[in-house]
């Protein structure tokens, strides 16, 4: 049981290291194109949010509200399931 706890605690770093090694050594033959970077050009460009219409802003607000309600309800369902007496 002790090995299982240690393995479950370290599963993410172990898997990242394992697949980094696999990706580095077993896929060396794959040629990838180089990233071309021009320092005179800006890579960061702000989206033109001011050009959006009021309808698109309101619809995004509505969808965001529905998504937050989904998170809220899901969290309450999970909390009630885990705190149920039959699951203790």
From TrEMBL:
A GO term for molecular function: solute:inorganic anion antiporter activity
Its GO CC terms are: basolateral plasma membrane
* Residue ranges annotated for the Bicarbonate transporter-like transmembrane domain, each copy included: 2-88
Q: Which GO terms describe its biological process?
A: monoatomic anion transport; monoatomic ion homeostasis
In terms of InterPro entries, this protein maps to: HCO3_transpt-like_TM_dom, HCO3_transpt_euk
Which superkingdom?
A: Eukaryota
Q: Does the keyword Transmembrane helix apply?
A: yes
What is the name listed in the Swiss-Prot or TrEMBL entry for this protein? Solute carrier family 4 member 11
| Origin species | Chelydra serpentina (Snapping turtle)
